[in-house]
Design a protein that fits this description.
Radius of gyration: 14 Å
Order of helices and strands: HEEEEEEEEEEE
Number of helices: 1
Strand order of the largest sheet: 1-2-3-10-5-8
Strand content: over 45%
Shape: globular
Length: 122
Amino acid sequence: MLATLVNYENLISKKPDIEGPNVKVWNIRQNEIIRINLVEMSGELSSHKHPDAEHSLMVIDGSVRVKIDHEFVVIGKGDFISIPANVPHKYWSLTDKAILVSMDAPYYDPKKTIALSDLTHL
């Protein structure tokens, strides 16, 4: 098959590729052009920025408060947001958990993500 087909239930039944206190991340697709992940989050994720990739999210379930530089927006089921490269951002789940599709383009090494002090970027 030439297409990438991923079943949600099969994907989340596997161990996440990344797991933290408030987040689980499963890689859906990755190549030199784009990285696509399924993200399950609850609570608050720390401020960060991606120096060399645009970061886009689409909410599948739940709602999320997003801080982009010094502005805030709330996104919910069906909403899409795209954050330019090198712009500080932060997320809070406004529901028990939120399910998102996260896309980074061009693909970048996640180890290049720059963590920022929440005190200076709130």
